[in-house]
């Protein structure tokens, strides 16, 4: 009974209440924000082993007049719970495709663009139909679109997910397994998945230089990736020392502040003009 008491005390502590109120306020603001153009996309360059930019990751930003810049790590889960994700997800895809089309026209280059797809978004009944329609809308001659999914997707019905992934592959999409190593995926299942890339979670890269456990983890991920003939991308690379070690392990793709922060469209364009492109 002491346990129960403890729980009830925790439940009414001010910090919990503040969090709760915060969530409600964010949820209310989110509902209004989609119409007010408070969302925009930023794009973080991705480099190959030669240091050439071959792609970008699209990341959403929310600038609220009162809250300021709210982290997507905070508002995406709230948007999902509140059922706003279908609309927000549509905004994310449509904006990304439109801006990538514009980039192709303005710079004459075709990049791969990786878009984060949350579990709920992926599981929406008509997700692939909507995505296909969206891609057709922009009449790309060529679009290299990669979907970043996470291991948590595979808690859902695998008999639904697997055929869908194969269909995505068939229409030319690539699939990247984001935050790899933080969740649970069996190696056996990984073998059956039609994916193109493993993305090493930033938390491993963060501690890479002084944590041998993180080093072993990364080496294992790279070995798995090589055996399955997948690209392995390290995210959150901030120093030359990290890059050097990752390269020595055989990592073949890189993303992080060392190269560029996530950039809004115009800044991205200027940045790309000054870079060796793939
Ligand atoms: P994620 O997909 O794992 O994205 C990586 C995060 O690391 C991004 O944070 C990125 O800005 C940050 N990052 C990249 N390189 C560095 C670095 O060198 N140093 C540091 N300190 N940070 C780095 P961000 O943009 O705040 O996104 C956080 C998470 O929110 C994402 O994690 C993703 O799960 C989610 N998210 C962001 N945009 C979207 C979106 O458009 N759709 C969905 N469904 N989720 C999104
Ligand atoms: Ca990601
Ligand atoms: Ca990640
Ligand atoms: Ca992450």
UniProtKB/TrEMBL annotation:
Signal peptide range in chain numbering: none
Superkingdom of origin: Bacteria
Domain EAL: 23-276
Name of the molecule in the record: EAL domain-containing protein
Natural source organism: Nitrincola iocasae
Whole-protein residues included: 288 to 565 of 566
């Amino acid at each position: 009974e002491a346990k129960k008491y403890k729980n009830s005390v925790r439940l009414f502590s001010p910090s919990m209440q503040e969090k709760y109120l915060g969530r409600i306020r964010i949820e209310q603001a989110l509902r209004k924000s989609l119409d007010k153009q408070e969302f925009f996309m930023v794009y973080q360059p991705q480099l190959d082993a030669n240091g050439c930019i071959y792609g970008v990751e699209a990341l959403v930003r929310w600038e609220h007049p009162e809250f300021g810049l709210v982290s997507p790590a905070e508002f995406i889960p709230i948007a999902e719970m509140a059922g706003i994700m279908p609309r927000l997800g549509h905004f994310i895809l449509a904006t990304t495709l439109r801006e990538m089309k514009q980039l192709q026209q303005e710079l004459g280059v075709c990049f791969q663009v990786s878009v984060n797809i949350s579990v709920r978004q992926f599981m929406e009944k008509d997700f692939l139909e909507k995505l296909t329609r969206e891609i057709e809308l922009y009449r790309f001659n060529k679009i290299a679109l990669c979907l970043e999914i996470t291991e948590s997707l595979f808690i859902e019905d695998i008999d639904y997910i697997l055929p869908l992934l194969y269909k995505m592959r068939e229409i030319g999409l690539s699939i990247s397994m984001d935050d790899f190593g933080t969740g649970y995926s069996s190696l056996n299942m990984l073998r059956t998945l039609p994916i193109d890339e493993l993305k090493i979670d930033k938390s491993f890269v963060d501690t890479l230089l002084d944590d041998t456990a993180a080093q072993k983890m990364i080496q294992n991920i790279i070995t798995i990736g090589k055996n399955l003939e997948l690209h392995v991308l390290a995210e959150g690379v901030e120093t030359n020392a990290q890059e050097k070690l990752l390269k020595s392990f055989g990592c073949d793709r890189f993303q992080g502040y060392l190269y560029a922060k996530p950039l809004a469209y115009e800044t991205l364009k200027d940045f790309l003009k000054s870079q060796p492109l793939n």
